[in-house]
Structures are given as structure tokens and as C-alpha cells.
Amino acid sequence: MVDKKQIYKKAYSLLSRRDYSVVMMRNKLREFALGDSGDSHFETFLEDVIEDLKEKKWLSDERLVSSFLNSKGQLYGEKRIWLELKKLGIGESLIEKMLETTEGRDADKARVLLGRKFKGKANSIKEKVKRRDYLMRRGFSYGVCNKLVLQDE
């Protein structure tokens, strides 16, 4: 049977490597506890541990989003960032709040990425489509992609 001390130990071990969202941590600890025993008495321990980690500011969705934006924010557009954060288990209201701080920079980021990837002007329709598709895979809106690619004319 898993006790509270073992759950704390696992949580500290996980947090020593990287930041986790509350949802991710809950899933990891649940996986750990269920793997060791078949009973479900660990649920109360689990919630106590998560609340304690949040109070101590060891577990923070805001910090995870901030860290993600610092590391990957320059590589992706708003749509891709939204999708990646949703995969991490971050709530929509927090994502909206954090993305408001980076609002309006998509065109600048896309211009920089386009300049890094492609040199010179696009001469053919095929080349323009290739550039537009590259930006769209990076999560930039259709309008931003078209505007930048058509500016190349």
C-alpha cells in the first residue's frame, strides 16, 4: 500500500527534473500509486500532496506556462502554443490570460522564422505555398501567413 510519504517522495523526484501542471502531476502520481497497489485509498493522500505542493509554490500552472512561453514562444504561433498548452493540461482561462501578454507579436515572429528558413524572395506560386504552409504548421493564422508570403512579391 502506498502511503503519503511515498507520494511526496515521488512528487519531489518528478519536480526536481522539470515543471509539471497540476493535471500532469496528478496523473503521474496516480499512475505511481496504482502501480504499487490495487486499492484506491491513495486518492485522499494524492489531493493533500498536490494542495501542499501548490501552497509551497512548487507546483504552478502559471510557472509552467511562463516557462513554456520563454522556451518555445518564439518558435510557434498563437494557435500552436494554445494547442501545446492544452495538451499539458492547462486551463483555457490561464492560457488566454498568458497569451494576452504576447498578443500582436505573431506577425513579427513569423517574419523572423520565415527569414531564417528561406532566403530571398519567393519566385513561384509553388514557393509561396511552401512558405505559407511552413508558417501554418508553426501555428500562425492564415491571415498572417498570407500577408507575409504575399508581401514577398
Fill in the keyword field for this structure.
0% strand, Arc Repressor Mutant, subunit A, 9 helices
Q: H/E order of the elements?
A: HHHHHHHHH
The total strand number stands at 0
Q: What does the average pLDDT come to?
A: 88
Distance between the termini: 68 Å
Q: Beta-sheet strand percentage?
A: under 5%
Structural domain tally: 3
Helix content: 55-70%
Q: Quaternary status of these chains?
A: single chain
Could you tell me the radius of gyration in angstroms?
21 Å
H/I helix tally: 9
Give unreliable regions as ranges: none
Structural class: mainly alpha
Q: Can you walk me through this structure?
A:
- By secondary structure, the protein is an all-alpha fold.
- It folds into three domains: 4-55; 61-100, no CATH class; 106-151, Arc Repressor Mutant, subunit A (Orthogonal Bundle), CATH 1.10.10.
- 70% of the residues lie in helices and 0% in strands.
Strands, helices and their partners?
Blueprint: H1 4-15, H2 22-36, H3 42-55, H4 61-72, H5 78-87, H6 92-100, H7 106-117, H8 125-137, H9 142-151
Helix pairs in contact: 1-2, 1-3, 2-3, 5-6, 8-9
Question: How would you briefly describe this protein structure?
Answer:
The protein is mostly helical and about 150 residues long. The chain has 9 helices and no strands.
